[in-house]
Amino acid sequence: MSKKLAVMLSGRGSNFVAIAETIASGALQGCHIDVVLSDKPDAPGLEEARRRGIDTMVCARRQYASKQEWEQAMIDGLQARNVDFIILAGFMRILGEGFINAFPRRILNIHPSLLPSFIGLDAQQQALDYGVRYSGCTVHFVTNDLDAGPIIVQKVVPVLPADDAAALSRRILEQEHVAYSEAIALVVAGKYEIQGRRVLLK
């Protein structure tokens, strides 16, 4: 049975588009995007989802009295749809323990660095400031520790002498579009086990 994916985004959702196109091409099988959820009613990714015939949900933080109520509304909506995995694709809010614990080892995120290096915001500028020769991206399971979940897939991107944050970000994003679908294929197939922070293929 095809696994249901819920994609959560706050903006244009370029990783969402890449995943949707990989599924449509047949290169990523065994899953489909069941719903796209955003915390921003005007997120361009929502319109892109509708154009593709994918259901959408909006849970704007300002509509709820507390973060807990907001997260519970998202939990209820996603659980009602029986989604198998949640794909964070530029969702620009930090999720709390209540949300993460509702979907243990079922939430994936992508980060524009080779974790555990350069966690948090502006990872590309952090890499440039540190002077590394290589950066990249990491797809990982989400845990209650920021950018610290078990690593599923990483892609390496060289840092060029003329790079600024924008140029490095563009090249990393190209690899994000590849890495995310690879990671989803692995988890959908279920042929892995988690040992500590390592994801081992069976």
Walk me through this protein's architecture.
With 202 residues, the protein is α/β, with parallel strands linked by helices. The chain is built from 6 helices and 9 strands. The strands form 2 sheets. A 7-stranded mixed sheet has the order 3-2-1-4-5-6-7, sandwiched between helices. Helix 1 (14-25) packs across helix 6 (165-189). The chain is globular and about 50 Å long. Pathway: Purine metabolism; IMP biosynthesis via de novo pathway; N(2)-formyl-N(1)-(5-phospho-D-ribosyl)glycinamide from N(1)-(5-phospho-D-ribosyl)glycinamide (10-formyl THF route): step 1/1.
**Could you say which overall geometry the principal axes of the C-alpha atoms support?**
globular
Which superfamily, in CATH terms, is the homologous superfamily of the largest domain?
Formyl transferase, N-terminal domain
Percent of residues in beta strands? 25-35%
Give the second-level CATH assignment, the architecture of the largest domain.
Answer: 3-Layer(aba) Sandwich
The CATH C-level name of the largest domain is: Alpha Beta
Largest sheet: 7 strands, mixed
Q: Order of strands in the sheet with the most strands?
A: 3-2-1-4-5-6-7
User: Within the CATH hierarchy, at the fold level, what is the topology of the largest domain?
Assistant: Rossmann fold
Instruction: Return the structural class.
Output: alpha/beta
Instruction: Provide the succession of SSEs.
Output: EHEHEHEHEHEEHEE
Question: Using only CA atoms, what is the Rg?
Answer: 17 Å
Q: How many beta strands in the DSSP annotation?
A: 9
Contiguous helical run count: 6
How helix-rich are the residues, as a percent range? 25-40%
